[in-house]
Amino acid sequence: MSYTTNIKNEILNNEYNKTEQISELSAIININGEIENNSISLYTENIGVSRRIYKLLKDIFNIEINITKEEINRLNKNFIIHMTIKEDVEKILKTLDLYDYTNNTRKYKPSDYICGNIEEKKSYLRGAFLICGSVNDPKTSRYHLEFIIENKITANYINDLLQELNFNSKILKREKHYMVYLKESERISDFIKLLNAYNSLFYYEDIRIYRDHKNMTNRLNNCEQANIDKIVFSSNEQLENIQKLKQREDFDLIDDKIKEVCIYKEKYPESSMQELADIISLETNTKITKSGINHRFRKIKEMVSQKH
């Protein structure tokens, strides 16, 4: 069973009040419904979703729904559930705000009375997710949540709802549909919470925390290795410069502080600048800082690069 299916199964176990049911059903029929010849047709491959639609229609309108299973030849799918509504179609479409009978046109964006408050907006998004939403399992390589919607107006409306609820969604035009999607792991987590799918949320968070910790550990290890590489390169460069400086005829005339750091670096070649400062301070009883050591090495580099 896929992660998306687990989320949807959790949604299907939750109960909501009538106004929220209307918002949810409005989204389902808007995205999935075919309206023609005074009838509504719905198609789904998910038995649980078909039961949810049946229950919503019964609870809100108390009508009869014709349900059939149609055989299909598709990878991993053997049948599709076809639901047909022929009773009280006008009442249903008016209640769900899906048809403009004044202008005799289909409506793809509901009025405020369908999605007036936060809970109704959440319910609309819940219905949309049941019909056309999916979430990558957090164990996969990328975080991704999407809605696949054929109608541009509906896709933009779903995107607007998500933006209004601070989900930072984006919309992308495909060949035959629109994809409204989330990529940020925290926003996806928040959306699963909005769906009240708490078992799926806990699973998601456990995996996300593990992945984030692992990524942080890898980044720290990479930084540590980079620092080690930098130190090794710097140390080798310092030793090379010391050798070049000692080959100069005037080496004996060079400042004693410069000679001192040369002697101690050759004596302790693997020491860092801080360690070298500590050693010199201890053995000569003269206080010198890491900054002072760094200054002397810069001076050595300048002297080596100068012609004499």
Give your account of this protein's structure.
This protein is of the alpha+beta class. It has 2 domains: 3-196, Endonuclease I-creI (Roll); 214-305, no CATH class. Helix content is 56%, strand content 16%. It is built from 11 helices and 10 strands. The strands form 3 sheets. It has a 4-stranded antiparallel beta sheet. Helix 10 (273-284) crosses helix 11 (290-305). The N and C termini lie far apart (78 Å). 26% of the residues are buried. The model has no long low-confidence stretch (mean pLDDT 87).
Low-pLDDT stretches: none
Q: By CATH's scheme, which homologous superfamily of the largest domain applies?
A: Homing endonucleases
What is the tally of helical segments?
11
> Outline, from the CA principal axes?
rod-shaped
Q: SSE string, helix = H, strand = E? A: HHEEHEEHEEHEEHEEHHHHH
In whole angstroms, the N-to-C terminal distance is: 78 Å
Radius of gyration: 34 Å
CATH class type of the largest domain = Alpha Beta
Roughly what is the average pLDDT, rounded to an integer?
A: 87
| CATH T-level fold name of the largest domain | Endonuclease I-creI
What level of helicity do the residues show?
55-70%
Major pleated sheet: 4 strands, antiparallel
By DSSP, the count of extended strands is 10
Strand order of the largest sheet: 1-2-4-3
CATH architecture descriptor text of the largest domain: Roll
Q: How many domains, in number, for the residues?
A: 2
Oligomer: single chain
Task: Classify the secondary structure makeup into a structural class.
Answer: alpha+beta
